[in-house]
Structures are given as C-alpha cells and as structure tokens.
C-alpha cells in the first residue's frame, strides 16, 4: 500500500532510491511515544468539538496505545516507503481501523504533527538534563564538608596565583551548572508552546480547539501565528546552544581534573572504575571518561553549527530540510546526558591527595596578593604596594625562599611601615583567613555558601518529590 502522504495526484510510484534518500524513520522512530501522545490528544479534541464520535475517539486511542506497546517491545515492522515514524503509526492505525483510522489526521498536517512531537520530546529531554545537572551539583556540594580543610592553589594562566579552599572550587562548578539549569528552564518555556492544529502553514477551516489540545498535552501556550510556527525550530537551536554550554562547562572541569590526576600535579586520585588501562603499558591508569567528556564537547558544538547552517537560508514555512534537525539534536542530548550520568559518580568517587597538595602548597608565593593588601591597609598606595611586593617576591625567588622566610629587616628596608608584624599575614593559611569579601574563599563565606547550596538542593529535591507524587496521583 502506498504511503498515506501520497495523494491521487501522482502518476508514478516513488522511485526506490528516493524512498531510501528521504526516509527518516531510521532516526525519528524515537518520537513514537510522543507521536502517540499527541495523536491521542488530537483525537480527544476532535471528539470534543464533534468531528469524531466518542466511540471513534476511544477506538483510535486504544489502538494507538497498542501500536505503541508493539513498537516498545520491538514487534513493529519498519518499512522505508512509509518515510517516518508518523506515517508508520498512522498506516498501522488505518490497517486496523479502516475509515475510522483515516479520520485521525483531520485538522492537522505532518508539519504541525512533527513539530509538536519534537517539542514534546525536547521538553522531556530538557527535564532529564536538568535532573542530571542537579545530581552533579549534589555531588560537588556533597564533597564540601569533608574537603573543607583542604587548601588548593588557585590558578590564572595556569600559573599559581592565590590559595583557595577546596569547597570554593567545588561550589564554582555548582554555580556554573546553576546557570546551565537556568538556561534549560528558560529554553523549556519557549519549547513548551503548542503548534498542533496550525496544519500545513495557514491553519484549518475546521472548528478545532487548539487550546484544548495544548491543555491535554501540558503546553503552557498556543502558538499564535500558524505561518511562523510551522517552520519554527528556534527551540531546537536554543536547546543545542544550552547543551553546548553544558558541554563546555563539563570540558573545563574534565580538563582541570585530567591535569590534577597527573603525576606532575598529583592533586587527585580518580576512581578506578572510571578509568581505563593501556594495551602495552601495564602501569597506566588513564582518565578516559574525562578525556572523552572533553572530546565530545566538539561534537555537541558541531551539532549546533549544523543546525544554524540548516535553517539560515530557509524561507517560510515548512521545508524538507528541517527533517535534518533531528539527528543533530538527538545526538547532542544523547551525548550530554551520558556525560552527565558519568560525571556525578566520578566527582563523588574522586579523592584529594592531601599530603601531596600540602607538600607543595608553599610554592608559587600564593600569599603575595594578601601581603600587598596588608601594605594597602598600612597606608601604602596600591600601585606602590604592588611594586614593593614584587620586589620582595623577586628577592625570595632568587634565594629559593618563601616570603615568610625573608627577614623582617628586608621589609622595613623597603618601607618603614612594614615592621615585623607584617609577617603575620604570610603563609597560605593566614592568606585564606585574611579574605573578607562576599563570594570569596574566606572560610566563613565558603561555609555560608555551602549551607545555602545544601538548603537550595534540599528544597528542590522536596519539590520534585511532591511533584512526582501529584503526577502519580493524577495518573491513577
């Protein structure tokens, strides 16, 4: 039987090569559950406005759910001549219900059907990503108490700069992923707009109720312009951008931990169940999960570029080019989700090598900026203090010493205001304790931020549990 998408206007059957070239069921079959969900909502609305009878609606929805179960179990035949998963489902419905099945597509087009299915799929995928990001935040925050007494060298230009508490590092990533989650939530708002019922591009003359369909599918809004939404893939591109940002943040973390796990840094021991070995060097413990997380970032960013190029020259409204949006966005979600799934247990399972960190913590004159600010407190202008401390660092470097090893007389020689009491601010512990500003690595500030994050994540967890319970009650 010919595809239901081909009307009587055609005088020749589709060339087999064209069928193979234009098919998308090989990748869009993952939309089947959302297609059935959207079709059931559409049928319910058609019954409400009198286009279908209640019996026809029940037949359609019952049969669609049966088809969905067959697809889920792998017992559903795939035929390339039916092009996509939407035509497969509709043809199966027609095969089983005849004319009743043929009524389902009333008041809609594949254009708005595919758009709606994809919006439903992306909405669910964004929710999954948000949950995975929350788990990763919990993993970082969960380390903070145990690592609170660990001081790490902070870096700029990959050169030792100032000391920071380890939980200050962990919370930096919690903040990055919080911005990612905010972008996910914002993207979800623009995704959660119903396009079903705009038909091909201009709407329909039939008395459908698009607001009812949107309500049934849990959409927040109904698209206001049929011509716009029939070609709109902004939500796909925005999702791809959000995923690219998440990947970039994951890549930054992965790069840092790859360095920290080297013998040269020796800050971190990675959990062995997240590492691999070498085929020839028996001593190797390689950070392959981190390396692939870093490497897959290029793939996610590349998908964003693919999508931007895809839509840049398209006129209104629908064009078949848009079929190519799915492999890219599916791949981006798949890639980011698996990276996030592995990241949380890896973070929780890693071990800071305290002895190795402490052994070299006094290298790099990490207390130099603290000394400069002590000079400022004693009335020395900032630029003068900056030059003065630079002179002391140069002296210490030449002698292979720490700033605290220089005799007090050297300080007083440079400026009479620098008496022996200035030595009290030197050393990484004194430098850490000297911090005062909001958001700094001061112990009291870091403790406050840890408590804030614990409260925030606990509240989110409680809200999520309440939401799940409500959803379960509603479905039952």
TrEMBL record:
Catalytic reaction equation(s): 2-(N(omega)-L-arginino)succinate = fumarate + L-arginine
Pathway info: Amino-acid biosynthesis; L-arginine biosynthesis; L-arginine from L-ornithine and carbamoyl phosphate: step 3/3
InterPro entries: Arg_succ_lyase_C (IPR029419), Argininosuccinate_lyase (IPR009049), Fumarase/histidase_N (IPR024083), Fumarate_lyase_CS (IPR020557), Fumarate_lyase_fam (IPR000362), Fumarate_lyase_N (IPR022761), L-Aspartase-like (IPR008948)
Domain Argininosuccinate lyase C-terminal: 366-432
Residue ranges that the Swiss-Prot or TrEMBL entry lists as coiled coil: none
Predominant subcellular localization, coarse grouping: cytoplasm
GO biological process: L-arginine biosynthetic process via ornithine
Entry keyword annotation includes Lyase: yes
Recorded GO MF terms: argininosuccinate lyase activity
EC number, UniProt record: 4.3.2.1
GO cellular component, one term: cytosol
Keywords: Amino-acid biosynthesis, Arginine biosynthesis, Cytoplasm, Lyase
Start and end residues of each Fumarate lyase N-terminal domain: 9-302
Transmembrane segments: none
SUPFAM superfamilies found in the cross-reference section: L-aspartase-like
Subcellular location: Cytoplasm
Membership in a protein family: Belongs to the lyase 1 family. Argininosuccinate lyase subfamily.
Stated name of the protein: Argininosuccinate lyase
Organism: Pirellula staleyi (strain ATCC 27377 / DSM 6068 / ICPB 4128)
Protein's gene: argH
């Amino acid at each position: 039987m010919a595809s239901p998408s081909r009307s009587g206007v055609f005088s020749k059957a589709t060339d087999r090569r064209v069928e193979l070239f234009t098919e998308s069921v090989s990748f869009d079959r993952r939309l089947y559950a959302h297609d059935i969900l959207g079709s059931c909502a559409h049928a319910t609305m058609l019954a409400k406005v009198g286009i279908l009878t209640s019996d026809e609606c029940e037949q359609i929805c019952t049969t669609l759910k049966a088809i969905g179960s067959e697809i889920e179990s792998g017992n559903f035949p795939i035929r390339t001549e039916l092009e996509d998963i939407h035509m497969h489902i509709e043809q199966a419905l027609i095969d089983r219900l005849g004319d009743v099945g043929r009524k389902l597509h009333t008041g809609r087009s594949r254009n708005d059907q595919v758009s709606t299915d994809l919006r439903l799929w992306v909405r669910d995928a964004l929710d999954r990503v948000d949950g995975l990001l929350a788990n990763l935040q919990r993993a970082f925050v969960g380390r903070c108490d145990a690592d609170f007494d660990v001081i790490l060298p902070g870096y700029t230009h990959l050169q030792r700069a100032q000391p920071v508490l380890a939980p200050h590092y962990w919370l930096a990533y919690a903040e990055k992923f919080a911005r990612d989650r905010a972008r996910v939530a914002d993207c979800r708002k623009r995704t959660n707009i119903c396009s079903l019922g705009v038909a091909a591009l201009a709407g329909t003359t039939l008395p459908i109720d698009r607001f009812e369909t949107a309500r049934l599918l849990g959409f927040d809004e109904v698209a206001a312009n049929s011509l716009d939404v029939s070609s709109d893939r902004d939500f796909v591109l925005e999702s791809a951008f959000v995923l690219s940002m998440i990947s970039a943040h994951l890549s930054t973390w992965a790069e840092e931990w790859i360095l920290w796990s080297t013998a040269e840094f020796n800050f971190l021991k990675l959990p062995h169940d997240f590492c691999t070995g070498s085929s020839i060097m028996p001593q190797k413990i390689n950070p392959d999960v981190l390396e692939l997380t870093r490497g897959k970032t290029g793939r996610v960013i590349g998908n964003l570029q693919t999508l931007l190029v895809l839509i840049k020259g398209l006129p209104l409204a629908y064009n078949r080019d848009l079929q190519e949006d799915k492999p890219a966005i599916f791949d981006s979600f798949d890639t980011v989700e698996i990276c996030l799934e592995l990241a949380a247990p890896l973070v929780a399972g890693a071990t800071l090598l305290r002895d190795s960190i402490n052994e070299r913590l006094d290298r790099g004159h990490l207390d130099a900026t603290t000394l400069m600010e002590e000079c400022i407190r004693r009335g020395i202008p900032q630029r003068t203090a900056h030059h003065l401390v630079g002179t002391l660092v140069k002296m210490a470097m030449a002698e292979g010493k720490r700033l605290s090893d220089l005799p007090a007389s050297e300080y007083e020689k440079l400026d009479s205001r620098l008496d022996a009491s200035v030595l009290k601010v030197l050393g990484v512990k004194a430098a850490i304790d000297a911090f005062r500003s909001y958001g700094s690595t001061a112990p009291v500030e870091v403790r406050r931020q840890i408590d804030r994050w614990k409260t925030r994540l606990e509240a989110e967890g409680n809200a999520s549990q309440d939401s799940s319970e409500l959803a379960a009650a509603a479905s039952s």
